[in-house]
Amino acid sequence: MKTQKFEILAAQSNIDWVGKKVTGAHNGTIGIKEGEIILNNGKLEGGKFIIDTASIKILDVTDPGTNAQFAGHLASDDFFAIEKYPEATLEITSVSGNDVEADLTIKGITHPINFDAAIAVNGDNLSATTKLLVDRTKYEMKFRSGNFFQNLGDTLIYNDFELSIDVTAKAVQPVLA
């Protein structure tokens, strides 16, 4: 049985996010600080990602003042509480085929999440992609949520946000199990 560890190349990996509201959507990026992916006989077995919440950027708001105000709001306790929680984590707990179970921790709150992952290995290089649908209210992000506030009208923000993860990793010394 051959176990192989791949270290995530943060500069070559990225996470795109989309948050939707009644009147449209916003999108941006958030960085991966570090992480690893573990393969066993060429199949995904485990891994952990550390996400740099302080790196969150908004791409669709072009006015600098509005963008800074929005970024400040995402950094606040209404959303990611970045000063107190500068990192979020995604840790794989089990894998069955392409179906991945993981623990997602945001703001110190952990919940299981399920997703499909596509992984390709070419020599010492690994690429992986996936999409996650995250219910922000599970992580104490209740701002303008219809679950907690009534009569929001067109100011309602939907509870789910999407993360599209694209990871590049490089093999480190393989470990034989």
TrEMBL record:
This is YceI family protein. PANTHER family: PROTEIN YCEI. InterPro entries: Lipid/polyisoprenoid-bd_YceI (IPR007372), TTHA0802/YceI-like_sf (IPR036761). SMART domains: YceI. It comes from Pedobacter panaciterrae. Pfam families: YceI. Residues 5-170 form the Lipid/polyisoprenoid-binding YceI-like domain.
